[in-house]
Predict the structure.
Amino acid sequence: MSLPASLLRTAGFAALYLLATWLGRQTIMDGTNLSLVWPAAGISAVWFLAQRRSRWRALDVLALAVVTVVVNTATGAPPALAASFVVANLVQAELFGVLFRQWLPHVWGGGGSLPMSRLPELWRLIAAAFVATAAGAMIGPTAAWLVNGVYSPASTAVWLTRNTVSILLIGTVGLRLGYAVRRWHAEHAGLRAVLRAELGSLNLRRALEYTTVVVVSALTYTVAFGFNHGLPLAFPLLAMTVWAGLRLRTGFVILHDLTFGSAAVLFTLHGAGPFAQVHDNALRALIAQAFVGMVAVVGLALALGRDERDRLLADLRASEQAAAEQAIVLATIVDGMAEGLAVMDAQGRLILRNPASGRMFGGLASTTDHMAGTEHYGLFHPDGRIIAAEELPFQRALRTGEPHSMDMVVRNPAVPEGRILHVAATPLPHPINGEPCAVSIFSDVTAERRHRDELASFAGVVAHDLLNPLATVEGWSDAGMTALDEAPEHPAVDDARDGLRRIRRAGIRMRNLINDLLAYTTARDAALAPVDVSLTTLVAELTTARVDQAESGGSPVPRFRADHLPPVHADPVLVRQVLDNLISNAIKYTAPGTTPEVTIAAAAEPGSRVRVEVRDNGIGIPAGQHGRVFDNFHRAHPAAGYTGTGLGLGICRRIVERHGGTIAAEPNPGGRGTCITFTLPAAVSVPAADQRHAPV
């Protein structure tokens, strides 16, 4: 039965820690029992990071404690001091692990799966190492003071420097190897494949550069540290670090710093090199390790900074490539659309257009990058009026900041039979070249509109032709009722009279339906004759007529409230029909025993529009049907006993849309009932009827 992987890692790290502890104890400072070099700090940092999720973590703590006590006591440390070293090393390793996981959670060892590859990550690593080492320095040197009776500030400085440099160098190597091993297992590849991936970018010239850096570094470090020439030749060695950091891979830079940094410390401890002139062992080791730490920081900072720049450039190139590919896909989609598409600014400059937009206008493309006048393309309203430039949907969308749509007829020499286009324009959320723009979509609805017009015309003709036989039926039924009224009472006469009443009621329903069909056709097809209309006068006439009708019929007299209403520019006959239908509905759809209350209000809106509201206290519209009530033949309350053909609100929508407005229904915000809102063009001038109400 094989051992768990975590136990094998514990055994491996314990062996490395044993070797590193023994090597460190060979550099004990005189009189302090503290080592000048401590590679075990870096080993323990990587050890506890790698085993952070182990079920057997207690064994790792036990193994570190046993190795520390055994090696320290075997090399002359008192048991009490060895025990304090156990506490110091455990606190240092655990605190480093906590800080590393908090500050570098995305890096391998901190809970993530990425290598250390950015410059800020290096500063966080150094900070975590320094804080953890400072915590250990508060325990180890203090314990040595208590045991030896002499406090040495140099020993504290040496502890702080040696352990920080050890974690920085050895810890960085361990983190890099840990990431490589994880990648190896994740990709189910062998070590050879991982090495191929790492060295895949190497060519002969690059391999020669790596070899040159190694050879020259070996020569320069040998000259600087191998001979007692008394010359301060340490600073030229930074040139090799800078060379490697700027040009070579980060993994190589880490190994380069570790290898030649260790060589510099060993030379110094044996009395060779520019730092050997310092006679105090502690100070000499402190300077040597500070030099190694500086070399490591410079090399890693240059390498990671270069990696970060290279990654940003690669991301930028990838983003540019993705944007270019997306632009190609988008251009292909736009060019392949059956609908026309054009993006224009307020001056009519064409920012973008697809081939379909040109085909829909008969191929009469503008000779410039600006849209030509409406006369050039032959653009007309469905009623035959030429469309003015300011009436185009994209211009209206840019003026109001809201989407606009309309039907237009294109008739020019290239399209002599005419083509009906539905144009929908929407303002873009962001300017292009500093100019607000709108996108327009052109859809060819010629067949759809002509089919609909044919159906509407057919309905109008049928409705008109049905009036003659209906009049005959109503006339003969009235004559029959008159004759039966004069006949003597008899059961057969009563049955006949009841049958004729049913015929008359059916005739009335039939006439209402025919009248609505005729009104619907008129609302769609009759030519508009817009003038400035006084809504105040019109509403007064309609409400007065409704009051008179209620008083004469014995019904509850409606209560109306209508403030001064802004005038509109519309067809007076059709506007009267809209308001009459809405007021009639408000009165009709009222609960039994309730006095109808109707409020008509209006206000001017941006874009030369007037918004009109008709509110009532009726039974309201069922939820989910506020949009459907404008469909033809839709009845919101078919089983509630309210009569109607379902065309009234459809007629209102047709009339409002022909004037370029919109209509909507919603619950009455002031209580029960419904609120119908529609918009119409504002009057060009104030009608005479409204001037009496204008403020002086």
Observations:
- The longest helix spans residues 281-336.
- The CA atoms of residues 196 and 216 lie 26 Å apart.
